[in-house]
Specification:
heterodimer, A: 272 residues, mainly beta, Immunoglobulin-like, 2 domains, 8-stranded mixed sheet, 5-stranded antiparallel sheet, 3 helices, elongated, B: 193 residues, mainly alpha, 6 helices, 2% strand
């Protein structure tokens, strides 16, 4: 059988070039021009010697990489950067910093609100990057409740249980986060949705109350890429008339799927 | 056989061995590819007296002398362990080198097949055709599927290991051919077309 080498060669070249062109175009479409920082709605309480985590996304192979980040107003907070999760084209990076609760210089600046990060790159000049809102506060320890247990899950649900050390009245439940996020947050206190609670609510000494929460923003278009590590504030009034505020952390884990990351990058990383 | 032609076959074989082995000492390629392609181009230049297809292969080999020069100091070999971290241009560079090498192999095989046919070396002809078809099938499959690895999950990159092992076997089988041709008693006929 006579082989038509020219036709076969032509077909081979078309297949090889077609495969390369298609894949390179797709690859380039998912290439981040700049590392992508997520928007935070975070309240950090300095009382407990807390670690702050900042997530950002960068290309897995070539491209601009973050070499360091800094809070402009409190440069003494030092971040360490390490890879957190690997995707097909990207890496989820994490920057972690320990807040030293005995650092007097830092405590003197509290409360502080951070809206921008100073970011250093492996190429080009450093730049200010919007980060949402991170509030570092120093809450006084509440003496009307004792912490018993807490749990959190990657599906966005969690709970926090405290026991009253004295007879108190719960007068108010404050979200402490931006209004928009309330629609993605299902919050129950003692199995009753918070907005249906009849306040003030009497709580006897020794009675345990559980705050349950469930974030459902993972399915929302842009909200899925925002990170809420906020606090719910429970306003108690003691029998002697004092108002005591207990802050309950309602953290949300950032676990994006490969498809979510690709969607985010294709839409230009627009988070708002 | 003409001693010049005998030496040309041997040089071609050893030049291909240089291409196969990538042995590095402190990032420096001890058996540099460009030296291998000098040997291949020189051998093909002499073999072109037997068939004109070797001339085409020779010119690609001459081009390869220059484009493989950076390879001496640059560890550009793509392995399944470093695949994800390599920049795009290195993927393109390594596969473009493979494509050019495959073209040289194809034309050498065509020349060998023509010589074996003219010499009525049926067994050798069948061996050349079988190895050429297997080599081309494997190399073309790799060239088509390789870019997909840029866009699929990391676990698929293990496919490179399978391709690598099969490619190594096919390269060794192909390198055997010039040494086998150097052993046959070729009549002094001119196959130039």
């Amino acid at each position: 059988m006579k082989v038509n080498w020219k036709a076969l060669g032509g077909l081979t070249i078309v297949l090889i070039l077609g495969s390369w062109i298609f894949n390179i175009l797709y690859f380039q479409q998912l290439h981040l021009k700049e590392p992508l920082f997520f928007k935070y709605h975070m309240i950090v309480n300095m009382n407990h010697g807390k670690t702050i985590y900042i997530n950002f996304l960068e290309n897995k192979n070539e491209g601009k990489k973050v070499t360091g980040i800094q809070f402009v107003d409190i440069p003494q907070i030092r971040f360490q950067i390490y890879p957190d999760q690997t995707y097909t084209h990207h890496m989820m990076m994490k920057a972690a910093a320990d807040l030293q609760w005995n650092d007097d210089e830092l405590r003197g600046k509290l409360p502080v609100t951070i809206n921008e990060l100073f970011v250093y790159y492996n190429e080009g000049p450093p730049a200010m990057v919007p980060i949402g809102e991170i509030r570092i506060v120093e809450d006084k320890e509440a003496d009307v409740v004792d912490f018993i247990a807490s749990s959190g899950s990657s599906d966005g649900s969690g709970s926090y249980t405290v026991r009253a050390t004295q007879k108190v009245k719960l007068e108010k439940v404050d979200f402490g986060i931006k209004d928009q996020s309330k629609s993605w947050l299902n919050l129950q206190l003692a199995n009753i949705p918070v907005n249906e609670l009849k306040l003030p609510m009497n709580i006897e000494k020794g009675e345990a109350i559980t705050l349950q929460y469930h974030w459902s923003n993972q399915d929302a278009e842009h909200a899925a890429y925002e990170i809420f590590q906020s606090k719910i504030q429970l306003h108690f009034r003691t029998l002697d008339g004092r108002v005591v505020i207990e802050s309950v952390p309602i953290s949300q884990y950032l676990r994006l799927t490969n498809a979510q990351v690709q969607h985010l990058v294709r839409t230009g990383g627009e988070l708002d | 056989m003409n001693p010049e032609i005998y030496r040309a076959y041997r040089r071609l074989g050893w030049g291909l061995v240089f291409e196969l082995i990538d042995f590095r000492a402190f990032y420096f390629d001890v058996l540099p590819d460009f030296v291998g392609y000098i040997m291949i181009a020189s051998a093909l230049s002499q073999l072109s007296s037997l068939h004109t297809v070797f001339i085409k292969a020779k010119w690609v080999a001459i081009g390869m002398i220059f484009v493989t020069l950076p390879h001496v100091l640059m560890a550009s070999s793509v392995t399944f362990s470093n695949f994800g971290s390599l920049p795009l241009y290195l993927h393109i560079y390594s596969e473009a080198l493979l494509a050019c090498h495959v073209l040289i192999v194809f034309w050498i095989c065509q020349g060998f097949a023509a010589i074996a046919r003219a010499e009525r070396q049926t067994d050798l002809l069948m061996t050349v055709i079988t190895r050429r078809n297997l080599y081309m099938g494997l190399a073309i499959a790799q060239l088509i599927f390789y870019p997909f690895l840029l866009n699929v999950e990391e676990s698929w990159i293990n496919l490179l290991l399978i391709f690598g092992v099969l490619q190594m076997i096919m390269e060794v089988l192909f390198i055997r051919l010039p040494f086998r041709f150097s052993q046959i008693k070729i009549k002094q006929i001119d196959l130039r077309v």
